[in-house]
Amino acid sequence: MPIYIVGVCRTEKGHQSLKEFSSVLDRAAKIREANGGKLISAYATFGRFDIVAVMDFPSGTAMQKAMTTVLSEGLFTV
To answer: Within its chain, how far is the Cα of 17 from the centroid?
Structure first.
């Protein structure tokens, strides 16, 4: 399966929902898994991205569908 490295930034809305951040990550995990994706690793970073995630998806289409769903919630940009 293809491996993807994704740089993620929280939006202003994402910063405001910091108290619920663990539930946001749980929701993102469910979306990823529903599209056949697996999280290989994730890193909190300083600078351009807040998080860098390494993920495995069965196809580019599956990855794009998962990312589109996560991004539509307005908490992250990539």
So the answer is: 15
Are residues 43 and 58 in contact, defined by beta-carbon separation less than 8 angstroms? no
| pLDDT of the chain, 78 residues: tens digit per residue | 799 999 988 777 766 666 677 777 888 899 999 999 999 999 999 989 989 999 999 999 999 999 999 888 877 888
The residues pairing with 43 across neighbouring beta strands, listed in sequence order, are 52
Q: Rounded to two decimals, what is the model's pTM?
A: 0.81
3-state secondary structure 9-54: EECHHHHHCHHHHHHHHHHHHHHHHHCCCEEEEEEECCCCCCEEEE
